[in-house]
Amino acid sequence: MTHQTHPFPSGTVLGYPRIGPRRELKKALEAFWAGRAEAAEVEATAADLRRRTRTRLAELGLATDLPAIPSAFSFYDQVLDAATVLGAVPDRFADLVDGSGALDLAGYSTVARGRGDDLPLEMTKWFDSNYHYLVPEIGPGTTFRFASDRPVREFAEGLADGVLTRPVLVGPVTFLALAKAAEGSPEGFAPIDRLADVLPVYAEVLRALRAAGATWVQLEEPALVSDSTGVPADRLLAAATEAYRVLATDLPAAERPSILVAAPYGDLRDALPVLAATDVEGLALDLVRGTVPTGSVAGLADKVVVGGVVDGHNIWRADLDAALGGLERLEGLGAHQVAVGTSTSLFHVPHDVEDEPQLDPTLRSWLAFADQKVREVVTLATGVTEGREAVHAELLAAADARRSRAEAPGVVRPEVRERLGGLDATAFRRGEFATRQAAQAERLGLPALPTTTIGSFPQTPEIRVARAAFGRGEISAEQYQDEMRAEVRRVVELQEQIGLDVLVHGEPERNDMVQYFAENLDGFSVTQNGWVQSYGSRCTRPSILWGDVSRPAPITVPWTTYAQSLTPKPVKGMLTGPVTILAWSFVRDDQPLADTANQVALALRDEIADLEAAGTAIVQVDEPALRELLPLRADAHAAYLDWSVASFRLSTSGVRPDTQIHTHLCYSEFGEIFGAIDGLDADVTSIEAARSKMEILGDIAAEGYPRGIGPGVWDIHSPRVPSEAEVTDLLASAVRVVDPTQLWVNPDCGLKTRRYEEVTPSLEHVLAATRTVRDSL
Ligand code: GLN
Ligand code: ZN
């Protein structure tokens, strides 16, 4: 079958960082939210960023007369953008939309951030990344209409600038698969039930884009590489068939742009033949996580296939030779055209390696941030169209970088390898829980329903000012230490006053729970400008884990022992676990993650041994990211949970029976990983169940889970101070469900983002409630 396919470039990227090289968008948005800037100023900053992005991508070699440059800007989140285009705004924000269903920037921000009692859209992780999207709320009565023409305007803006861009939208299947049923939806309703109602709006958007001159549009459908969206696989496949029948077959090719369906983050598997059988003109495959299909795929002969061989999700230079090999195999499938692409959007990586002058030049030579990745794409596209000889020098340079990386000092440290290789099963196992429990009870002598916190206390403006001054060299290390110790003293005194049973030092010295450890371990480097968007205006600066990991000196011991010297109550040591350190860093890709995790685990194990030797009786190892790295495909879960749980156990199993190990996990939907939590074998686990009213406790009791559990009685994610009565009710219901000897009382996460005005009264209410419930036992 032939129909009109518009010309497609030989190389492209699926997306590019949106926040700006100096986080310009963050600053503009935050000034707007604080009332310090007008919406028009934010719009101007955004337009400038979009223009600079187009210019930069063109400079790096992407075509401007063919749709190589994506038009993929967002003020906050691409899923919220799709909801806005479709007019799918929850009823509680109905007053914010204008007559045509559109939101202005203030209204859009309110949907993202909430106001008063109107909660914002829920936020959750985007596939297996550390980016958070906003969850649309779709009910049987949600009305859809083409409410915002922003994508059309942004396309037109590029065209006026002489650049034919490719608009990017979250596709209909993924949009609905990621949505949740709006409150009040009938039992059994799922947003994907509304597919037939959103498709006409998508069709209108496509028509409008074509009318504005767009030749290609990119519809993002990563839901099709995942088993984890909650929509059954057969339902997803049927939805894909239906969606692209309506958009590609029923909507004549002359009335719309050619459609590129992008499937980042994994392998399409069964969805590949399904998409190939539709009339869409192009498919973008993730060939970093996925593989080149073997055997023939019907329907590719008239399609453009974008081979996503350049990793959009990590920062290592590509193996160009291997990438070309993959592209050549892809050509063997007989597609109409093979183009070169990134595996995912580049918004998971920072802008430019050249922007890191302080990074060791050798390390820098191994890295590719977004701009370097664009050049890799361009090089590979030349290789595909003109043959390997045309890019001979680039292939050699890439091979040199890989060799340099393999041979550099610190990448392989024999002593680290030998130690790992010499471990046997006992290194991953503690003694019986019952024995530990008795020994710990005797050593700690805690009351029933022991009270504690998750670790951090508010990071006050004074702490941030001191850290910034230290960073600029304006105060000495000694002065900085003194200020942080003074903060530790205040935090300990406050906890004693409030009457907590297990104290913490409060983590004032940590900029970030991962970067702090990265700065203190060998094998890591940190960047200056390597910001990536985490959600909305929030960015993180992941560390780079490039070599074998070891611990040159104790890290937390002086802080914990100082805090312990101030109080007779036990002070809990506080560490970040191996899986979370990996999840929130850019991790070497030259060995299995399991090996890297175990190296980190050994460093932590030594830290825990030093804490124990210094008299610490309780150590908490946080694993908030344990669930985030869970593979998208169900058949990969078991292997992941095996190594991730093992690395946690390796870090914590060196201690005596009377040393109590805690862990903290930042979520409560644990059905799918309950076995893993059990497998961690921590003596006490705190979780984030305050918002869900501790529903999880029933499951825990039903499973016969024997160890300590702190479900969290105060939701710290909102500035609200819970009343004493409310906490009393929660605790009273908890002791009816689980054995009171298992129950710990704590807020549901760290307090670093809260203010003392909220923290002090909240903790006081928690303590008063605990006393009441204790008396009733
Ligand atoms: N100990 C950390 C804190 O209290 C844990 C934070 C987290 O789990 N995200 O800040
Ligand atoms: Zn947490």
UniProtKB/TrEMBL annotation:
It comes from the Bacteria. Keywords: Amino-acid biosynthesis, Metal-binding, Methionine biosynthesis, Methyltransferase, Repeat, Transferase, Zinc. L-methionine binds at residues 454-456, 507, 622. 5-methyltetrahydropteroyltri-L-glutamate binds at residues 26, 130, 538-539, 584. Its cofactor is Zn(2+). The keyword Transferase applies. L-homocysteine binds at residues 454-456, 622. Binds 2 Zn(2+) ions per subunit. Residues 449-770 form the Cobalamin-independent methionine synthase MetE C-terminal/archaeal domain. Pathway: Amino-acid biosynthesis; L-methionine biosynthesis via de novo pathway; L-methionine from L-homocysteine (MetE route): step 1/1. CDD domains: CIMS_C_terminal_like (cd03311), CIMS_N_terminal_like (cd03312). Belongs to the vitamin-B12 independent methionine synthase family. Catalyzes the transfer of a methyl group from 5-methyltetrahydrofolate to homocysteine resulting in methionine formation. This is 5-methyltetrahydropteroyltriglutamate--homocysteine S-methyltransferase. It comes from Cellulomonas triticagri.
